[in-house]
Amino acid sequence: MGEGNFERVKPLSPDMFAPGCPSNLTPFRIGDKWAGLVVQCLEEGPRRFSELRVPLRGVTSKVLTETLRALERDGMITRTAYDETPPRVEYELTSLGRTLFEPMEACRKWAAEHLPELVAAREAYPG
Amino acid sequence: MGEGNFERVKPLSPDMFAPGCPSNLTPFRIGDKWAGLVVQCLEEGPRRFSELRVPLRGVTSKVLTETLRALERDGMITRTAYDETPPRVEYELTSLGRTLFEPMEACRKWAAEHLPELVAAREAYPG
DNA sequence: CGGTATCCACATCGATACTG
DNA sequence: CAGTATCGATGTGGATACCG
């Protein structure tokens, strides 16, 4: 409650959307901090700009716009603007974008199974 | 010839090691440009510092050192220094590091199948 | 051989303010 | 609602030089 549409995006593991979580992995972390998360949010269906801002807590509209444009440019998502007031824009995975599901699942599975080991190693590391 | 040990690292797809190739994806592209490639190089066995510099063309020793330290800190690789002259250091995947194979394979498979579509979309994009 | 030590260019990200 | 426009902090990667 008070969290808006956050519950529409079912978390796949406890802190998957937490900043810095290594499960933000996916084929699209090519120096882009948010693209993988956006794709994850869109896996369940089309989302509006403001709906994406909710689970991606902390992202500014500027950065979210840049991320969405990059994904659109690479053919991963479509942008559909409806001529209404107030304006409504929906983002949706393309068929190409949906092919990302498999590798992302593999990465999420890895994170779910091995993240604790990574964290433990990091904490045990001198320094 | 003249390429040193490059052929020891069998390329999994034509330009997998090319700079900017989206197959450099893997769980370790968390803002790190080279870690995924390093893990890939180590999948076939232990490698020396200078052996890693060959396939990762363009990486400086400074950046390679940082990358290796980060992977070591996260428990993905071990560093073994042999007390010889000239010095010899070997890097090797840990058992945790080897678990990265599955998600990385999934990413490589994705790239091999869908990279052309991404590139085509990018070229067709206005601007 | 296997690194360190500096310095620097560039890009990404974020904060803030404003708009149709 | 869905952005755009600036500006600035931060940090990552690269160039170069040097060391045990």
TrEMBL record, chains A, B:
UniProt keywords, alphabetically: DNA-binding, Transcription, Transcription regulation
Matches recorded under Pfam families: HxlR (PF01638)
Alphabetized InterPro entries for the sequence: HTH_HxlR, WH-like_DNA-bd_sf, WH_DNA-bd_sf
GO molecular function, one term: DNA binding
Occurrences of domain HTH hxlR-type (ranges): 21-119
Membrane-traversing stretches: none
Cited PANTHER family: TRANSCRIPTIONAL REGULATOR, MARR FAMILY, TRANSCRIPTIONAL REGULATORY PROTEIN
Protein name: HTH hxlR-type domain-containing protein
Native source species: Amycolatopsis japonica
